[in-house]
Amino acid sequence: MADGGLSADPKEYRSRLADQSDEQIDAWASELMRDVVIRRGVVRVIEDFRSAARLNEAEFERVFASGGGPPAVVGRDRDGNLIVPTITLFALVPGIRPQVADGRARLIDYLVKNFDELVYV
C-alpha cells in the first residue's frame, strides 16, 4: 500500500498529503465523501466532515452555500441529524476554502480522520 502513494498509518498519510496539490486534496476529499456516503450514509459524512473541519452547524451551512450548495436543502432527518442531499455534498470541498483561512488543513484533517475508510484497490 505504501508503494502506491498511500501509507500504512495515519501519521505517514498526513505527511504524504501535505506534499499533494490543492487540486489533488480536493479531488480525494470529494471522492472520499462519495465513497463513504455509499457505504455509511450522508449523516456519517456530515458528522465526520464537521468534526474534522471543526465546524458548528451555522459554519457548516455557510461552507455548504459558499461551495454552491443550495441553502434551502439543508435540513434534518427524523432523528434530528443535520443532512443535505447526497448529490450536493460536493459543495463542501470548494466551500471550505473561502470560509476559513486553513481550509486546506481542514480537508487534510478530514482525509486523515477517515483513513480507515479508505478502500485500497
Count of individual helical segments: 6
Strand content: under 5%
β-strand number: 2
Mean pLDDT: 92
**Quick one: overall form?**
globular
Radius of gyration: 14 Å
Compact description:
The chain is mainly α and 121 residues long. The chain is built from 6 helices and 2 strands.
Q: Topology, please?
A:
Layout: H1 10-18, H2 22-40, H3 42-53, H4 57-66, E1 75-76, E2 82-83, H5 92-99, H6 103-113
Antiparallel strand pairs: 1-2
Helix pairs in contact: 1-6, 2-3, 2-6, 3-6, 4-5, 5-6
Description:
- With 121 residues, the chain is mainly alpha-helical.
- Helices cover 57% and strands 3% of the residues.
- It contains 6 helices and 2 strands.
- It has helices at residues 10-18, 22-40, 42-53, 57-66, 92-99, 103-113, and strands at residues 75-76, 82-83.
- Strands 1-2 form a two-stranded antiparallel ribbon.
- β1 (75-76) and β2 form a beta hairpin.
- α1 packs antiparallel against α6 and α2 crosses α3.
- It is globular.
